[in-house]
Write a structure and sequence with these properties.
Structural class: alpha+beta
Strand content: 5-15%
CATH architecture of the largest domain: Up-down Bundle
Shape: elongated
Strand order of the largest sheet: 2-4-5-9-8
Distance between the termini: 50 Å
Helix content: over 70%
Radius of gyration: 45 Å
Amino acid sequence: MQKIKQKNEKFLFSVGTQLNIILLAIFIILCLYFSITQFEYNKYTRSVTDNSNLTDKVVALKKGISDCEVSIEGYLQSGNRQKLSEFNDSVITSQNLIKEIEKSNISSENYYLLKSIEMSFNNYFAEGCQASFNYNTQNYEYFSRMYSAEIIQNYLQKYCDELLTSLMQNQKKVNQKLNVRVRNLGFFSLAFMLCFLFLILFFSVYIFRNITHPLRLLVHQSRSVSLGNFKVQVKTLKNKNSMGLLIDTFNEMSQSIQKMLERLQKQSLTEKRLIEEQKKNEEQEKLLNEARFLALQSQTNPHFLFNTLNSISRMITLEKNDDSLEMIDSLSSMLRYNLSSDAVVLLSEEIDVTKEYIAIQKKRFGKRLQFVLHVDENLINRVELPKFILQPLVENAIVHGLEPLEKGGTITIETRLIGENFYLSIQDNGKGMKPSMLQKLREGKPILFENRSHLGFNNTKNRMVIFSGDPAVLKVESEENKGTTITIRLVTKKGAETDV
């Protein structure tokens, strides 16, 4: 039971999932309403059609009996064999009509009346046949037979009239019942429309309270954070969904950045008092602390978060709710990954969080940004590396390589197993670097690229060197106006390199 509850909570965690459930409920309600109304309409139409067809058959039967009378009288008066053939055809037609009416859905009272018509018509046919036989044999008894047939024919006409009257009365009763059902259906439709309007109102209020209003608050507070005010807080939501996680993470981020800045300032004052023999260890510790800070800043820095929330706000304004919900879910996944305490992760985890980052950037850049992924699914689950190695490199490729180009470009992540050596490469076909800049980057010197620093790359490289113990663990190649490729030699999960 506990597992089922946990699965339900996980399923309803996403705001997009909740909205899809509401839309599905509205769709089902509409389908039920239209099914009920269509069923009532079909029932009414079928009843009217059946009764109309039955009435038409009785009228046709009455005409067929009259045709029989006219044909047999014409034969007895003129002796024309054609009239006798017409009499037989009319008899067959009338008998078929009686059988068809008998198969119809008629009441028991009408059924017995139809049986009387059938028996009388059989007697009428017998008298007519006997009259024609006596006429052929010049037996003048055919007069009495014909007179008897006329009497039966009059009764048949009377029975048909009674059957028509009974059918009209039954249809009148059915119409009265249907009119009551139609009125009830009208009341039902009115009640349904009121409930549907209430549901739409509830849905609008839900979107405003759980998406639009919280996002506006986040955008407003993120502007303050971008200006250096890390003491801002956003009111938390009661709902524990992806939007609630986003707000909680934003509040934790602003607090953690403020505390981290204070801690770094204290560490900077302490490091100045350390002796020269301890400088190397202290520099490594400082580098690790800066790496954690830069990773957090690179992943959720105020400018990135401000731009992402602004993009979400604009998409909601343009009624692109699906895109905005996807960006919220991606940003929530990145924040949740950022808050985990693991210092070393699997390559598959790094690729997953990088996909979320790419998904957010693709919403901003559109078709200008393309992403290609070629990895070995078995190997990426056996390779470890420090947390937030891959995403900063992808961010550098977008910011420094592709963003300055009007047409954009493609980011390619690829793993290769060359012999016994396993490599991860991040490649872009963007602006590239001049040879002088590339040389400074390889030497670890800070450079400015389009007025923005490349310190994030040096920090990533130093962390990989410390992690692997190999100064040549990361290699960068670049050619101006053709793109940049960064190659990393990775370590297996057991802690030994793949025989590199």
